[in-house]
Amino acid sequence: MSSFFSQTKKRCKILALMLLNAYQRVLSPFLPKACRFYPSCSEYARWRIKNQPLLLACYFIFLRLLRCHQLNDGGIDYPVIKKRIAPGFYPLLKIDFWLIPLARYSFKFDSVYFCSKFLVIKSFKEIE
Q1: How far is the C-alpha of 28 from the C-alpha of 103, rounded, in Å?
Q2: For the CA atoms of the chain, what is the radius of gyration?
Q3: pLDDT 10s digit of each residue in the chain, 128 long?
Q4: If residue 45 lies in a helix (H) or strand (E), which one and from where to where?
Q5: Do 73 and 47 touch, CB atoms closer than 8 A?
Q6: Nearest to 61 by CA among 77, 76, 42, 75
Q7: DSSP line for 58-89
């Protein structure tokens, strides 16, 4: 039963990302560039959906959309996520996002640093 729910969650995330892709490729080019933040609201939504559970991501996306109006100055607003990462060696994979630890949520235990909250920064293609 739990595998059914995990597959459903995965499919919902894929569907949300497909809808976001459709918006970015079909509708967005015809709309004026009016986003007051970096990353743009749709890119922020993509980062949240990829790095958090879907309902929590939708909540933060909704809050971000409420802040995106003419009376707000905007600026840089990277998503902050909670994540547990065990210390150790990780195999080299394609990096989509960098997780930058927030200092105020870090602690040291047995000479190993742990962090519970991270800024999510998109990894750009390497310059050859």
Answers
A1: 36
A2: 17
A3: 567 767 888 889 999 999 999 998 999 888 888 788 888 888 899 989 988 889 999 999 999 989 888 888 888 888 887 776 666 666 666 777 777 777 665 555 555 556 667 777 777 665 44
A4: helix 41-51
A5: no
A6: 42
A7: HHHHHHHHHH-STTS--EE---EEE----SS-
